[in-house]
């Protein structure tokens, strides 16, 4: 099959590799749509060759069944949950692979930048005919991640929410928080992204500078927001998000890569704040996101600014990683 291989920082090329074979409990999927995730930027900058095929936002069609597959059939369209759990603990039985106590990444399903991928049957969500491939590949990560974060922050109608970091995840959080009936303040250094968020329904969009907490208070009758979703992964966003919370509020930590110094007494304890981690999504959350897409309550396509073939992937990947203006989400369609 054709696949993209990384040969070092900024050097990815289309190569031919052996087709993957589905092992026990796996199906072979012909990839029809595959997203380029913000976290794939780490692989773009990785100085050494990446030994696996990058890409973890896969939708496709089942073309072969491995031994022991009972539920899926050949021809079925699926969206793939990329986090691999042990498959038999209580969390995995519930489809919450992110909560599997044995998770170590070794069973994760990567390899989205290719024509074919083998995936655990338990990680495949059947997709109905009235949902297109582009939407399907955005279920578990691009929309599932912020969906889970808003659930864990218990964001409800009438809440005030601050979303820091307006990449595709933060932008999907804006869409989903508005759907929940929240008042949404979006923050990002880039005017392009702030304008994008306003077009998607954000009530205000601000730069994440030291005035942010005061500006947030001005917009919330002096209280601050009840929930902040940190989606930028930038260390500087944490003190701003914590100071923007009202007493008793919750910071949901979503964007990866930050390193922070915390003064618990001032920043957390005496303000009775909660910091809640939230990673990716489970099968149940994916099903709920799919239903929101299928019933047109959310439109995932509004995020997609770049589309192309596997041959065009290296150039689009470069654009996503090195250009900020005019770029939001990219989706690749490996099947011609
Ligand atoms: Zn991702
Ligand atoms: Zn498990």
From TrEMBL:
This is Enoyl reductase (ER) domain-containing protein. It comes from Anaerolinea thermolimosa. PROSITE patterns: ADH_ZINC (PS00059). GO terms for molecular function: oxidoreductase activity; zinc ion binding. Keywords: Metal-binding, Oxidoreductase, Zinc. Belongs to the zinc-containing alcohol dehydrogenase family. Pfam families: ADH_N, ADH_zinc_N. Residues 8-332 form the Enoyl reductase (ER) domain. Its cofactor is Zn(2+). InterPro entries: ADH-like_C (IPR013149), ADH-like_N (IPR013154), ADH_Zn_CS (IPR002328), ER (IPR020843), GroES-like_sf (IPR011032), NAD(P)-bd_dom_sf (IPR036291), Zn_alcohol_dh (IPR050129). The keyword Metal-binding applies.
């Amino acid at each position: 099959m054709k696949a993209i291989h990384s040969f070092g920082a900024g050097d990815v090329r289309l190569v031919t590799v052996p087709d993957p074979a589905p092992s026990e409990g796996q199906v072979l999927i012909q990839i029809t749509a595959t997203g380029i995730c913000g976290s794939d930027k780490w692989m773009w900058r990785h100085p050494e060759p990446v030994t696996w095929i990058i890409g973890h936002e896969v939708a496709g069609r089942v073309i072969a069944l491995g031994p022991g597959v009972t539920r899926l059939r050949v021809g079925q369209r699926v969206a793939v949950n990329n986090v691999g759990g042990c498959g038999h603990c209580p969390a995995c039985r519930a489809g919450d692979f992110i909560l599997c106590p044995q998770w170590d990444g070794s069973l994760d399903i990567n390899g989205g930048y290719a024509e074919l991928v083998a995936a655990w049957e338990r990680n495949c969500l059947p997709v109905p005919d009235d949902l297109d491939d582009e939407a399907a590949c955005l279920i578990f990560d691009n929309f599932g991640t912020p969906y889970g974060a808003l659930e864990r922050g218990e964001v409800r109608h009438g809440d005030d929410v601050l979303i820091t970091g307006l990449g595709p995840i933060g932008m999907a959080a804006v869409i989903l928080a508005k759907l929940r009936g929240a008042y949404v303040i979006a923050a990002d250094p880039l005017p392009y992204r702030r304008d994008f968020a306003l077009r998607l329904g954000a009530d205000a969009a601000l730069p994440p500078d030291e005035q942010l907490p005061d500006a947030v208070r001005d917009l919330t009758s002096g209280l601050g927001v009840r929930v902040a979703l940190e989606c930028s992964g930038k260390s500087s966003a944490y003190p701003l998000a914590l100071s923007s919370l009202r007493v008793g509020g919750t910071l949901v930590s979503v964007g990866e890569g930050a390193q922070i110094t915390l003064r618990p007494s001032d920043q957390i304890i005496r303000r009775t704040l909660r910091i809640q981690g939230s990673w990716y999504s489970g099968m149940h959350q994916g099903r709920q996101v799919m239903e929101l897409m299928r019933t047109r309550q959310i439109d995932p396509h509004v995020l997609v600014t770049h589309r192309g073939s596997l041959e065009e992937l290296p150039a689009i990947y470069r654009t996503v990683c090195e250009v900020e203006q005019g770029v939001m989400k990219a989706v690749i369609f490996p099947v011609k």
